[in-house]
Amino acid sequence: MITNLARGVNAFTSNAFLVTGETTALVDTGANFDVVAAIREHADELDRIYLTHTHDDHVGNVEAVREAFGVETWGFDPDHPLVENEIADGETVEIGDDDYLALHTPGHKDDHLCLYSREARTLFAGDLIFANGSFGRTDLAEGHRPTLIESIDRVRETVGSDLDVMHTGHGPSVEDRAVEDIEFAGRAARMG
Fold first, then answer.
1. 47-64: buried (b, 16+ CB within 10 Å) or exposed (e) per residue?
2. Among 18, 34, 102, 130, who pairs with 134 as Cys (CB 3.0-4.6 Å)?
3. Gap between the Cα atoms of 151 and 183, Å rounded
4. pLDDT interval class at 160 (50, 70, 90)
5. InterPro entries, from UniProt (predicted)?
6. What is the pLDDT of residues 34-78, one digit of tens each?
7. Nearest CA-CA partner of 82 in 104, 98, 106, 66
8. Are residues 131 and 161 in the same domain?
9. What does the alpha-carbon distance between residue 28 and residue 51 come to, in Å, rounded to a whole number?
10. What percent of the chain stands above pLDDT 90?
11. Domain CATH code at residue 166
C-alpha cells in the first residue's frame, strides 16, 4: 500500500509516500507538517527513510521521523548530514514488498535518485518528472538542463512500457499512461 501523507497539506512540502509491507518505508519526508502523526495513522513502525534528493522541502521532517521511529535515512550522497546510508546507482533497495532499482538521475539536484520496481510497475520520480510532461527545475543550485534531459532519457530507457504508476515529488501521482508523461517530459525539456 502506498499513501501520500502530504496529500491535502497546505504547506511548502514535497509529497511524502508511506509504503507499507515487508519493509515499511517513507520515500521523502516532506516538510512543514506533522508527518509523524500522519505515519502513525497508517503504521506502528517504520523501517527506513529513502530520499529522492536533499532539497529542504523533501527532507525538512527527517529529524522528527528519525526521533519518533528510531529509523535511519538512505540516499545517494553519504556526505550529506541527513544521509546515513548510501544508495549507489544501480543498487536494489526493498520498499514495501518490492525491490526497487535506484537510478542516479541528476539535473535537478546532483544527488537525485529515482526508484523503479519492474515487478510493481511503479516509479518514484522525485522532482525529475511530473504529471503531464512537466519536469524538474534547473534554475536552482546544481540544476543543469542537459543533464536533466539525460536523466529523463535514462528513466525512459529503463522503465517498462507496462509502467502503471509514477509517484512524483509534487502534485498528483500519474496512474494512467505514465510512460507517455515521461516521454512528454523529455520532449518538453528539450524545447526549453
1. bbbbbbbbbebbbbbbeb
2. 130
3. 12
4. confident
5. MBL_Glyoxalase_II (IPR051453), Metallo-B-lactamas (IPR001279), RibonucZ/Hydroxyglut_hydro (IPR036866)
6. 999 999 999 999 999 999 999 999 999 999 999 999 999 999 999
7. 66
8. yes
9. 5
10. 98
11. 3.60.15.10
